[in-house]
């Protein structure tokens, strides 16, 4: 049964997640109101082992349409992931092997099980892998598909124009990426593709192919990228603002609390289903920290449950508001005389000695609440608490 209640449809369309609908929002809403079962999909390439809240925003939106009764597909780009989308890249991505890709997407279904209904008895979320069709195309078929586009069309992508001006190389396989993503729409015979605004070019390639090969029109529903509404900084791992779905409850709570105040509203709107009215009330609170704690609690509740959310909130209050050390922190056995740089590496607080030095120079490393300023220091026998930002551990030095 397809739900055509206008109020429910408007709640989805007007929440503030969707930025553009092609060809038009009016036509898309009319199709939703007709009661026809539509096939939606969203895809993601396995370029990392963990999905982040930017992915989650779009997957939750996909689930919203599933709840209206529509067929939805979560497409894992296990073939396109080996090529790499050049979106916003100043150089070609490093190519991944098949083994790299498989390792990366291994945990994705577990990470998303609390936001996607894979086990619904009547209308479950479908999971597909685009190697099922892209890996079977022969060279003649690829040539036939590529004949539907011109080099000039591909060069319209912003990052290609920029590279040309800078004299940087554009590899031929990068031109093929929009073609491959476009063919996903044909292979799955979809009606709607959900994507971030950075994927509109690729999604429109699919619209072109679907029209030419099947004489079928596809809607492209483009969503906001999660970004600080004050600075415009995008949520990303490289910027230190990524929040990943494989985090444990305490780490996830802490990662949300570490976000800037400008991220509060975008995350509340995109990654929760707290009502817009309540969100506006939260944004009026005198201390933004209180709104952020509500956000952190809700996100942890979604992925780890109510009990873990309460526990994470209490641990945060204990650790950062009461300045006490929480129970059950991770402990490490360290040899007396060990160099502080090696310790930071051993316990996983940093990934290199260079990063460790930088953190010490920034004053971010503390032992027993005393700031460490000497990167050549060694540790003496005893039990000590070491901190780096939100990270905390106990050292048993012998």
Overview of the molecule:
With 398 residues, the chain is of the alpha/beta class. The protein has three domains: 6-223, HUPs (Rossmann fold); 249-321, Tyrosyl-Transfer RNA Synthetase; 331-397, Structural Genomics Hypothetical 15.5 Kd Protein In mrcA-pckA Intergenic Region, Chain A (Roll), CATH 3.10.290.10. The protein is built from 18 helices and eleven strands. Strand 5, helix 11 (200-214) and strand 6 (219-223) form a beta-alpha-beta unit. Helix 15 (288-304) runs antiparallel to helix 16. The longest helix has 17 residues, at 172-188. The protein is globular. The termini are far apart. The mean pLDDT is 91.
| SSE pattern | HEHEHEHHEHHHHHEHEHHHHHEHHEEEE
Shape: globular
**Main sheet, how many strands, which sense, barrel?**
6 strands, mixed
So, CATH architecture of the largest domain?
3-Layer(aba) Sandwich
CATH class call of the largest domain: Alpha Beta
Radius of gyration equals: 24 Å
| Count of individual beta strands | 11
Average pLDDT, to the nearest integer?
91
What kind of assembly state do the chains in view correspond to? single chain
Strand content: 5-15%
The CATH superfamily of the largest domain bears the name HUPs
Strand order of the largest sheet: 1-6-5-2-3-4
